[in-house]
Amino acid sequence: MKALVTGANGFTGSHLVKALQKRGDQVVGLVRKSSNLARLEDTKVQLVYGDITDRNALHQAMQEVDTVFHTAAYVELGLVDEQQMERVNVDGTQAVLEIAKETGVSKIVYCSTIGVYGDTQGKVVNETFSRTQENFSSAYDRTKFQAQKLVDKFAADGLPIVSIMPSGILGVDDPHFGPVFKLFLKGWLKLWLGGDRMTGIVHVDDLVNAMILAAERGQSGEHYIISAGDLPTREMFEIISQETGINIPTEVPQPIVRFAANLLDPIGKLLNWNPPIGRERIHYLYERCVRVDATKARKELGWKHQPVNEILKEIVKQLQTSN
Which one of the record's GO molecular function terms can you name (predicted)? Predict the structure, then answer.
């Protein structure tokens, strides 16, 4: 198989590139000229340089490609550049779909998110669930929902595309929760927020396996939730604490956190700075709760995954070994 991976230098994209090459597949990676390529140093990926909305670059990247894996996305919460996020997540997805249709690729696997289901208010949902949340929790929430609508429309019109809906993606080199793991292991993480927040988890390598299975077995137009399960953040730290003997960080009282968020948001807007805590992040910590069931992927794709507690333990061991 010859495959194109958009966002090949990213967290998920780079793991996918390595998994495909390990299988013996030929891999093309679309990256920007300004991209940090450190994650691809040990690969033989054929690079095509261009923005995700650059149709000429996409056309070049898709030549003689069988399968397109679209992982490129702008992922961030808080005070973000909404126009840039929409350009990448929505316009970029439309460009990928249009060029894939023109070039006649045999399969597209789109990396979406469980976030498209909106706030399920703690209810565990599957792929049949229709979003009931009328507004959007963030620009990311909105743009990924819009992109999914585009994907579904192209699929309905006959484009062979499968959507993968991952929960929180973890791994040793995870750019979001990874730094938290590292701080914890050094004994520097003394405080934490939102211990009751339910966090859905999937290991990046299990996600990559699901994407490859989706390319091989997934039915066009179908959605597949990819999650090993969920648990409160406090329990995540308890598992890591039991594994390492390091004390669980103290949870900051919610009123203090909300006060800090209300204070930092206007400062961030004034200074063009995205603070670590703001009203949007508070909403995700204390109010929004998305829970999902990945039975369909296990049954229809034959997807297998590590249990949540084993994912956490493995990451800790790998980080300890690397240090």
Answer: aldehyde dehydrogenase (NAD+) activity
**Considering the domain 2-170+199-228, what is its CATH architecture?**
3-Layer(aba) Sandwich (3.40)
Helices 233-244 and 178-185 cross at an angle (nearest 10°) of 40
- pTM given for the model: 0.96
Name the burial class of residue 44, with classes exposed (0-12), middle (13-18) and buried (19+) by CB atoms within 10 angstroms of its CB: exposed
pLDDT per residue, tens digit, the chain (323 aa), is: 999 999 999 999 999 999 999 999 999 999 999 999 999 998 999 999 999 999 999 999 999 999 999 999 999 999 999 999 999 999 999 999 999 999 999 999 999 999 999 999 999 999 999 999 999 999 999 999 999 999 999 999 999 999 999 999 999 999 988 999 999 999 999 999 999 999 999 999 999 999 999 999 999 999 999 999 999 999 999 999 999 999 999 999 999 999 999 999 999 999 999 999 999 999 999 999 999 999 999 999 999 999 999 999 999 999 988 76
> CB count, 10 Å around CB of 30?
29
Q: Do the Cβ atoms of 111 and 93 come closer than 8 Å?
A: no
Q: Cβ(131)–Cβ(297) under 8 Å?
A: no
Q: What is the DSSP string of 31-69?
A: E-TT---GGGTT--PEEEE--TT-HHHHHHHTTT-SEEE
